[in-house]
Amino acid sequence: MIIWNVTFSQEISSFNLDSRSVITPGITATTNITLHFSKNVRRVYFVDECVSEDVEYSFDMKGYLTEDINRGKDLITDNKFIHKTIYTYHKDMVERALVYDNDTLTWITNYIFDKDKVIQYAEANKGDMDEEILFSYDNKGRLVKSISKSEGIITNTEQVTYQERGYTITRKSGAEIYTEQCINDISSKRSQTIFKCDNSINRIYEIDYKTKIRRLIFYFNEKKRERIIARYDNNKNIIEETVYFRDGKGYNKINLYNKDTLSSSKTYNSDNTLTYEIVYDHRGNMIKECNYKTKEIFTCQNSYNKNNDLIVVSVFLNNVLICNKKYDYEYWD
Prior knowledge:
Blueprint: H1 8-12, E1 41-48, E2 53-59, E3 65-73, E4 80-90, E5 93-101, E6 104-114, E7 117-125, E8 128-137, E9 143-150, E10 153-163, E11 166-173, E12 176-185, E13 190-197, E14 200-208, E15 213-220, E16 223-232, E17 238-244, E18 250-258, E19 261-269, E20 274-280, E21 286-291, E22 296-304, E23 310-317, E24 320-331
Antiparallel strand pairs: 1-2, 1-24, 2-3, 3-4, 4-5, 5-6, 6-7, 7-8, 8-9, 9-10, 10-11, 11-12, 12-13, 13-14, 14-15, 15-16, 16-17, 17-18, 18-19, 19-20, 20-21, 21-22, 22-23, 23-24
């Protein structure tokens, strides 16, 4: 399957109807900002007493995550472990990720670029090639084909064709044929993507840019079941999401924002009973988590340094202190 640079959450946040006319494989960089740190952070080291682990993040001068180290103890065997991932980048895209377990290289993820386009994606387990995807483009620079291999054997192929206002992906995996057809209607400001397996619809994804509503509709035994409905604001944030189960019941989630930072999220049952709630502070870090079914209330007292980075998080369960998280920082000058 194509390693999409555009995910569902990113896709619904875009107001450009042509946003998926050019499909880009790859993974964008994780940064100190996306991890809720300040932009000049060079290294973060924190001890999490809640799970008996300590974590270390390192960032380059652009703010890109270059190293992620996790040290802890296996809950089953009680053995200590060190899990480390090292990242290198091509501009703002991940080029290579090396995974080490207890100083032994165990996994390699590698993207090969031709100028700014990914032409090959490969995964290797302990040095042995496990998964490989080859990408090809047309003379306009648009992705038109991908070939996936596992241990050297072709597992599926994907062919992309572009229309004036959309695209169609045809995926062949063994004897099965999957299609994904996206149609962007400029006049009505609507986008619809239809997913089929062997010519039978299994789900439809819709975006209405006027009402800022998206829908994900599943089909079971050729019967239409609307499963997810979401609304988003002018800043492209999801403010309400409703999920339906097969029995018609489900839940509704309401999100509130302070500018673009999530400040609270409440989840209601189909009978409008509040079941779950999370509250965040000005930096998007949690200060309260309430499970009204189990009557468990977690609260966090967050302390910050002069750079507005977390230094201590004290975690309470039903007003009783259970653990702390402590952070140390190094900054780029």
